[in-house]
Amino acid sequence: QVQLVESGGGSVQAGGSLRLSCAASGFPDSRYSIAWFRQAPGKEREGVAAIERDGSTTYADSVKGRFTISKDNAKNTSYLQMSSLKPEDTAMYYCAADVWTEEPLAPRDYMYWGQGTQVTVSS
């Protein structure tokens, strides 16, 4: 049974940084894609960053140059380093994973989801 557990959310002032973590368990090996999504109240869930089985990464335009996704296969953990945070980054952040994805930032491509961690950026 695959489980994803996020941590690292919190409150920060604009311009600050946070690092989110997503610990995965239940996959037979490290060959899976993992992505971070976010959802603000009243808005659709949007893809933020993804790292695929081959290590390639994809970012939403809104976070390029500010966010970095990484994956430690030995620890089965993904990280989302967020810098230069803006109030519009405020949302619940979710990690998601699956063995195969066609569109790395499309929520429909992921079967497994974590419970989410809240990020709040104040101005």
Question: Could you give the topology of this structure?
Answer:
Layout: E1 3-7, E2 10-13, E3 18-25, E4 33-39, E5 46-51, E6 57-59, E7 67-72, E8 77-82, E9 91-98, E10 112-113, E11 117-122
Describe the structure in your own words.
This protein has strands at about 5, 10-15, 20-25, 35-40, 45-50, 55-60, 65-70, 75-80, 90-100, 110-115, 115-120. The protein is mainly β and about 120 residues long. Strands 2, 4, 5, 6, 9, 10 and 11 form a 7-stranded mixed sheet that branches. It is globular. The mean pLDDT is about 95.
List descriptors.
123 residues, mainly beta, 7-stranded mixed beta sheet, 4-stranded antiparallel beta sheet, 50% strand, globular
Counted by DSSP, the helix tally is: 0
What is the subunit organization of this protein?
Answer: single chain
What string, H for helix and E for strand, traces the elements in order?
A: EEEEEEEEEEE
What is the mean pLDDT?
A: 96
Instruction: Identify low-pLDDT runs.
Output: none
Biggest β-sheet strands, sense, barrel: 7 strands, mixed
| β-sheet strand percentage | over 45%
Q: Tell me the structural class.
A: mainly beta
* Gap between N and C termini: 41 Å
E-strand count: 11
Overall spatial form: globular
Helix content: under 10%
Rg of Cα set: 13 Å
